[in-house]
Structures
1.
Amino acid sequence: MGKAVVWVERRLMFKHAASDVQEFTRPEDSLLRAVDPQTGEYIPSLEEAVEMAEQEAQRAATAEAEVARLRRLLDQASQRNS
């Protein structure tokens, strides 16, 4: 295989890799952010994912407390009607 053919193959491989990077990343400020190709949304960084998980845990705890409160109210209403 000649040097020119190898150079063309490498150039095509680089061009293909570069288009893959563009497909799965998007610039944000001075960084490239990973993008979900199906939704087009940014994939959260580790810090963002931890923050989202903490917020979700807080939301779940609040919902569980509300469910417990409503059950107590139902139990009280049920006992009054008995």
Note: Residues 1-43 form one domain.
2.
Amino acid sequence: MLHSLNARLFFAVIAVCVLPCSAFSDDAAVTRLHSFTEKVGASVPASDSTGRAASAHSVMSQFQAIEGSLKQRDYERARQSISSLPLYVIPPDLQGEWADVSKALIADIDKSIADARELLRKDVDQLVNDVRSVCLSAKASPEFDPLLLRCGALQLRRPSGQDALAQRLYEKVSGCSATLEHMARFLDFRAKGFAKLANNALRELVNNSTNFPVLSVDDIKSKMLPIEEAPTNLRDALRTALEGLKTPDDLPAALEQVRKMIATADSSNGVVQGLRSEEGSLQLLKAAWEATKNGDDQSALQSLAAAQRSDSSISMDGQPFHGPIRQTIMHEALSHSVHRYIPIDSAKGETLESYLDRALDELSKKQEFAGMLDVMKNAETWLEPNMGESTFGLQRAAIERFLAGRRFETADDPLAALNEYRFVMTVTGKHVPIKEAQDGLERVKQKHPEALTNYEGAVLQELHALREQMQIQAQPMQIYSPGRPGRPNAYPHLGP
């Protein structure tokens, strides 16, 4: 973006300060005063030590100060110093001549002031023409830097006084500075693709009535960028922003497009708020795709689940805008999980649910129960936000109990193994290892026939204790109060 105007004026100050003093050495007033100063010095002999000599040296010092003001074109200060200089400080034999010289100096100064104003007026008018010409042809904001330096230099040459001409010249220079700043913003926004913000910079130039109009309204309108009408509803805005989103690799470009629309959309109709929500969803999908490509399936699936929750209310034709993108990422992430156990790929056009079911069937056939749990867990990360409850809840619990039964069986704990295997046989579901649990139950029976009796006896004992507890809880509550007939006094210290 454009540097601040104050920073650029710093260089203009330097440019003015380094102008050589010889540029002012030919002024008539400087020449006239210098000659009279030499006369004052010559009127006093070098050997004179009287007060006349001291007074002459003092007035010569004042003349040198006035000469310095003239060389710096500080005409007002020089004029005031000459007018306020008392006549008695001038050597008596030169006082008559000083009256004539001072009048001539004042006339020279007035002429220099008039010449300086005329020169400033011409320079300011030339600046206005140059600013207009460059603004209409510039391609980038750095082209305005030389003009900004000229603005700074001309502001330092502002004539003294508050007359109408001085104020007029000041307004022209200020108008040039404001025009350059707005045009620089326009070019900077245009270069970055922000057409609406670029046009807003031009509109601000039109609407600001306090600045001198360097450019005409037609000039400004000719620079306006053609922009499409901003969508007035969220669905149209998203359809436009996500038009190029075809594969997960398109997510970075789609995210950038949404951010551009946020910068230019009308915030009064709720479109910006919806686009910001979509921006969050796209960021999550982008993170999921990057995690998938890096082999971090768990992080990918968690990002997918978060994206699903954030945009569930945004749909087009009944489907989420980027539903197919999520499906693609989910396919890829789940296939990574499956490939850790079996080499089975998703068929072209196969739904996610079909691929998941087929993969679990293959894992079940190979008795890769740990793999089944891993795949189910990852799938639930994405499926649960849609289903509202665990998709594989009881089936996964049954597999976990089956594996626990195996561990108990290996540890020669028949009662615990029987308990786990029998739980598995009570659960229904395509992927529940019922046959494997039955086989495990038969092995335990054959190896520990007494375990079945002990197991059934333990179960009966638990049922009996549970029934007694339920009977106690079912009895009505008896309330005893003092002195109630037929009831023992629960509070004997209170009396009957």
Note: Residues 137-223 form one domain.
3.
Amino acid sequence: MNQVVTPIDLEHPRTIRAVIEELNERMKPLLQSMEAEGFSWPWWNEKEPDHDDRMVMPKRWYYLSVYAVRGNSEAHCVHFDLIIPPLDGERTCRLHTVGFMKVWGGWNAAFRIANAATLILHE
């Protein structure tokens, strides 16, 4: 069974918060069935004052990556990252995590959520 997925529009300026909210809304039935809380702004970004979810999605990014991470204590996780090209004078790309979620429904649930999010975010 082929399912047609309309991707989220990332071409026009939108805040990271708006993208995450739309992604969570479109995935709500799946998230509920997989015992997942939905994407949120990663807690580790709170330590960087120039990073918050009101930032506009960068216009330049090489890759958008959504992947499952095996947990070892309370839950598995799904990360939503942007790989951003080097700025002038830099030699390497930067990885910027813009979304994070815990999944209590098991490893397969985390993998299915990552796959669904990738389809929705794919342009």
Note: Residues 107-121 form the longest helix (15 residues).
4.
Amino acid sequence: MVRFDGKTGKPDKSWPLFGQVGNVVEYAVGPDGMLYLMAGPLGHGAFIYRLDRAGKYVPFPEGSDAIPVAEALTKSPKGKYPTWHLFPGNAYNEGTLPKVLFTGMKGHSNTHEKGFGVSPTGWIVAVVEGLYEDRYARLKTTKDGKLPRVVQVWSPDGKLQPVGVAGKNDLSGYNGHGAHMDRDGSIYLVRSFTLPRGTLKLDGIADVPVRLRRWGGHGTLIKFRGLGGKFPLGEFGEGDGPAGAVKLGSGFGDNGKMKPIYASGAQWAYGGMTGHLVGTCSCPHARHDMDGYTRSWIPAQHLSSIMVIDANGNRIARLGRYGNVDDTTADIEEDRDGLRFALPKAVAASDTAMYVVDYDNRRVMKAKLGYHAEETVGLDGSASVSTPAPVATATVAPKVSATSVPAAPAATPPTAAPAPSARSPEQVCRGWWSLAMSYKRAGRKDKARDYLQKIIDEHPKNDYAARAKREIARL
């Protein structure tokens, strides 16, 4: 692992464990500021432990379910995978790890990016695959619940809970990449090759249906409502399920077909995830994030953008559009949009900043977040509203100005989007250009040409027209 200074973007080589910790599958930062690590050789996330800010091991409290590393290793297939003997020395170079939380995972090479998170109240959520038989009993599942993938939950004091989200069989069992829990105990899961029932199109792309590998694989973010510390929160199953269950479709979308499944206990499903292939694929899957206001930040690879979703599943912002590292400063300042991504793969966000892994541009971009409106509430209940200048500055070269993010709204039921206001020719061309680039990446060159030609035909004097002509020649 390495650590970077978020203010300067430079490697923080003063960190004692800089470049030293190996075999880390996933990590999360807890509300206590500690680093929670999910680790194991060959991408098998069998162990969970934590370090303080200085990189020193911090044990879980007495009475937790943490077990000695030696005991955990006896449960691991040392004969099958010769690198098991390197753990824990290759996972923590400052000495021996006395105890770890054992996930019960037998081991499978594609488990390296299933999902791991620590809630604002310290609960640990991990998605694992291929468990030992005794682990199913500890999770208090039924015979029907013996699935290759399960969501496990530990309390802040390290005690294993019953399974977080159950399933009826392999097809309806959890299959995705990404897991978070909010302060109310709700669990947010990404399920790959799944969309809300009745749709075959992703949020933001209205006329191109999903397919097996289009946009890196499609998926849906699903919220399971918290039950005050009781588990499971719900389950996946085939068919329509009980009353109130969220209805979904599962499959590749071939010939317009998806198998009907349901998610009971779920509150909503957002069908706008990309970069999520099948559970048996070892590809680097996309990663979303959740901030302290329970807003989900989603790398929308099909739009070269970041989508922001509130706690009720409403999209409240879209940030950025297609662009490259060689976009000129003059071009960016003229368009006044700032954020440009070729292929956003992962995102992390707080209330003040956003970091995006722009995969194809080989960079991490930081943007300072601003708000259209802010409300300050005094201790006496008085309130004042201000409207600061919209926008912030991204700290990568070339220097760009980030589009502003709406303030987090109060929780409201989903509502229809308002009618769009009249847009300038520049904005129209920019939107068509972004759509053309999305279609190009999806392999739909015909649709990309259509939008590029619209720019040329309807706004021939705009600068985008010249760019569109060059792009058509390349296509």
Note: The longest helix spans residues 425-441.
